[in-house]
Amino acid sequence: MENKAIVCKDLTKQFGDFKAVDKISFEVSEGEIFGFLGVNGAGKTTAMRILCGLSFPTSGEAHVAGFDVYNQQEKIKKNIGYMSQKFSLYDNLTILENIEFFAGVYGVSRPEIKERSKDLISTLGLEKEAKKLVGGLPLGWKQKLAFSVAVFHRPKIVFLDEPTGGVDPITRRQFWEMIYQAAADGITVFVTTHYMDEAEYCDRISIMVDGHVAAIDSPSALKKRFDAVSMDGVFYELARNAQRTSD
């Protein structure tokens, strides 16, 4: 598993007779921006919860940052960052308090928190807002701050669940500049998104359909394989293939 941030082999999660994740296999290299795509109910959130150490698989194998998802979940959690579209910051805490709280949770020392908090707030241009409640920030700023908090402890991998949902196109581009910088710093980025233009920003993409990995490759290779001019076209062809199979 040298130079591999994530390794999955036949990973399965079953609820009764229903297989939410059905024998998925893939690898993610260190420093890679890996897109994990699929419609609601495709199984991507269930798979992400397993990889984040929040749920046990039914069968199969997976290692995250070199740790086993069955018996090293706490070590996984210490080596990753996580950002959710729905909940990443506390609205009733200030910007500085949010940074200090989550940095503490991730185990960053107090001297480091003090020094790096000042640098982060300066980088984001939020010096005048540092002591204001996060609840008063525009959504775009919340998301950029949430991402910064998720990588504050310099994790090996950061998991981003629909990180740019609901923000304007300009903020989305700025957010992806932050993702590129994190990857350049050696952080592996595992991201889910329903924006097809964002899928093309990834180094490689895995597309989930009904619990299976239906396709995995670089955006350019997938477009060539399905004779599509965009990732929307790739999804359309995969949906048609899935429909033919079910018929």
UniProtKB/TrEMBL annotation:
Q: Where is the ABC transporter domain?
A: 6-235
Q: Which Pfam families match?
A: ABC_tran
Cite a single GO MF annotation.
ATP binding
- List keywords of the entry alphabetically: ATP-binding, Nucleotide-binding
Coiled-coil segments, which residues? none
Cross-referenced InterPro entries, in alphabetical order? AAA+_ATPase, ABC_transporter-like_ATP-bd, P-loop_NTPase
The record, for SMART domains, names: AAA (SM00382)
Is Ubl conjugation among this UniProt entry's keywords?
Answer: no
UniProt key word Cell wall biogenesis/degradation? no
PANTHER family assigned: ABC TRANSPORTER G FAMILY MEMBER 20 ISOFORM X1 (PTHR43038:SF3), ATP-BINDING CASSETTE, SUB-FAMILY H, MEMBER 1 (PTHR43038)
Its name, as the record gives it, is: ABC-2 type transport system ATP-binding protein
Phylogenetic lineage: Bacteria, Pseudomonadati, Bacteroidota, Flavobacteriia, Flavobacteriales
